[in-house]
Each structure stands twice: as C-alpha cells, then as structure tokens.
Here is the input.
Amino acid sequence: MKLYYGPWACSLAAHMVLHEVGEPFDSESVNLKTKVTATGGDFSEVTPKAYVPALELEDGEIVTENIAVLDYLASRYPDYGLEGPMGRTRLLELLAYLSTEIHKSFKPFWHNGTDEQKAVAGAYITARMRYLADTMRGDFLCGDQPRVADYYALVMMLWAGRFGIEIPSALAALGERLKARPAVQAALKVEGIV
Ligand SMILES: N[C@@H](CCC(=O)N[C@@H](CS)C(=O)NCC(=O)O)C(=O)O
Here is the structure.
C-alpha cells in the first residue's frame, strides 16, 4: 500500500492511521502546487484529480477522497472502524460531517479568502466542532479508543490552531490525547509538522 500525501494536507489523517496500525506501507509526498511527487513523478498520472489523499493498493487500484480512503482503512483494520450492525453507517456519518461540514469550510483560509469570509468560516467551524465535542462518547469521538474519524478530526484541529480558530476545550483535550500517541508523532515528524 502506498499513500500519496501533502504535508499539512488532509491526507495526514490517513497517514496517521497507517502509522498507527503498524504494518509496513510506502508513502510519497506531493507538491500540491506543481503536482510533482517527491521522486519527480507526475501526480496527475496517479490520479487525474491531482489532489491528496490517494492510496495505491497492492493490486494497483487507486482510492481517493478522504471518506473513501478512511473507510477503506477502517474496513481493512477493524480496530479503527466501528463495530456493530450500524457501525459502518455511523462511521460514514461522522466522516461525511468532518469532510463536508468542517474540512470544506476551511476554504477561505487555504485559498486567500477575505477577512470577512474567514470570520464567517471560522465561526462556522467552531460551531461544527462544538457538535463534535458535545457528542463525544468517552476519551475519543466514539468511545475509549481512537477510530479513523478521530485522526481526521485531529487534522481539522491542527488547521484550526494554525489559523487561530477557536475550538471547544473537550475537543482540544482529545487533540492532546491523540498527539501524545507515538504513531501520531511519527506521522507529524515525517510531514515536518513537529
Ligand atoms: N474531495 C477531496 C478533497 C481533498 C483535498 O481537498 N485535498 C487538498 C489538500 S487538503 C489538495 O490536495 N489540494 C490540492 C489541489 O486541489 O490542487 C477529499 O475529500 O479527499
């Protein structure tokens, strides 16, 4: 398995999960402006979408979109998914919330939005994060151990910290718990974030 990632990008969620599960994997960073990979390859040939994450499976299949990539990893490593008859549905519900309600709201911060657009988006993100804090069930989003959605939430929290967006204290505590994990530290180090 090989993950194409961009430092600080949303692909960090899958990157942290891959470090967490402890099986060997390959990774290659991508310059998201030029679309050139670290080994000089044309990332557009890996995926015509030319954005990360892109996960190349052993048979050469490419999986894109955070929701699909994280769902794939949760199926492959069930300790990081949600068990029970409604488990996958609840996990997808959470991943979709993170992707469409929170991740996408960062657009003005990453793409030169006006101060007004940033203020509106920042307040929206804080409110959406508050829902996550209010519905946490234990030390992590879904109980006493982290699932793939927790790592996606951590990326959103790191972005919030970078752009000075307020996050609820319960969520900040979750972020600290995740950051204390060696696998998370390893992924952050590879991406040059710590
Ligand atoms: N719909 C995609 C969006 C992924 C995305 O926004 N990737 C960003 C990094 S966080 C990226 O690669 N941007 C470069 C570009 O779009 O050119 C998903 O949910 O996975």
